[in-house]
User: Which sequence fits this backbone?
């Protein structure tokens, strides 16, 4: 396996044309949880962040984290609502109570995921 390195001339110097590999996740707009994971890695796990970035796996890692957290959020919201007996009937009869309970559940679920 041979690698050919090309160079470009900048002033009096030749600089290698190096680039990170293209990611298939570039068009995916990261959500809240993916951005939180990226910030955490950048601030607290610099070596892991750098390794993922250099290997071209950072975008995939953040994508998978974001998708998995969103799935878990939806699942837990549904389970908690069922456990608390929050139904569409409650929503139709007493909207403020339904909103209050759903916000409480949302805060609990987000705390679990984070």
Assistant:
């Amino acid at each position: 396996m041979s690698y050919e390195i090309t160079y470009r001339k900048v002033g009096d110097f030749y600089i290698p044309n190096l680039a990170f590999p293209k990611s298939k996740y570039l068009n995916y707009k990261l959500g809240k949880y993916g951005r939180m994971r990226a910030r955490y890695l950048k601030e607290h796990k610099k070596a892991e962040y750098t390794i993922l970035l250099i290997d071209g796996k950072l975008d995939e890692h953040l994508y998978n984290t974001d998708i998995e957290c969103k799935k878990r959020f939806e699942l837990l919201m549904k389970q908690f609502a069922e456990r608390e007996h929050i139904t569409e009937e409650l929503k139709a009869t007493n909207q403020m109570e339904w909103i209050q309970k759903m916000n409480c559940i949302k805060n609990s679920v987000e705390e679990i995921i984070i």
User: Anything to note?
Assistant: Residues 33-113 form one domain.
